[in-house]
Amino acid sequence: MSLTGNAKRKASCKAIGGEKKRTGHAREETFGDRWCDSSPLTYKAEADKIITDPVLLKTLETTFGQPVAGRTSLKSGKNLQFTLGRVDDVSESSDPLSAIKSRSVWAKYLGKSESQCPADTLCYRGVNTWTFFAMKAVVDFIVNNCQWRQLKTGRLKGDFMNKEKNKVLQYLTYEYRNTHKGFFLGANGNKGREFIELLTMYLPHHVETD
Fold first, then answer.
1. Alpha-carbon distance 38 to 63, whole Å?
2. How far apart are CA 144 and CA 130, in angstroms?
3. Is 126 within 8 Å of 142 (Cβ atoms)?
């Protein structure tokens, strides 16, 4: 039986979602083989992996100027999804623009601060590279520098000054997605890689190559 247009769209989204999950699991396995003791993949909203390699931990502590537990959130690709689902802190607020500026929101949904394994490190998988940031520095940067605005559609857009281009550009998005019946918070529209490049302009970071 042939699929209708809407059914085709849903099937396509499901296939893309499955492929992203497989890619994410492969990324975690590669990361784990290189810098972690053997540990199962996590499907929870918490840090993806815990670095145990003493050389990398020492390097990160020197780079960040602070102790590093090694609990790492792994990201990759042109789009970054920080969370997808219930974001009551913002969606149920009478003032979403103020709510999304809260440090607790970013610590919770990006840093997974309320989980059993909060992330103190963010790692982005690029082309043959792994770029590490201190999670607290990333949260602080977003809270202190993002300029939020609300569109007529209800979407919230987050803008930052790009000092290399000397202009304010949009990077982050908060929106409701009917396909998942939940809220998306992250960098979409191919802004994910650009957001990581923005972070490297302002924050201490360490790059490992394959």
1. 26
2. 25
3. no
Q: Which tokens sit at 61?
A: 């502590």
Taking the model in full, what pTM does it have?
0.86
Give the C-alpha separation, 45 to 10, whole Å.
24
State the pLDDT at residue 37: 83
Q: Are 173 and 167 in contact (CB under 8 A)?
A: no
Cα–Cα separations (whole angstroms), residue 148 to 9, 59, 167: 31, 34, 15
What's the CA gap between 52 and 92, in Å, rounded? 39
Q: Are 111 and 59 in contact (CB under 8 A)?
A: no
DSSP 146-178: -EEEE-TTS-EEEEEEETTTTEEEEEEEEEEET
Give the pLDDT of residue 18.
43
The identity of residue 11, as a single letter, is A
Tell me the two tokens of residue 204.
Answer: 């201490």
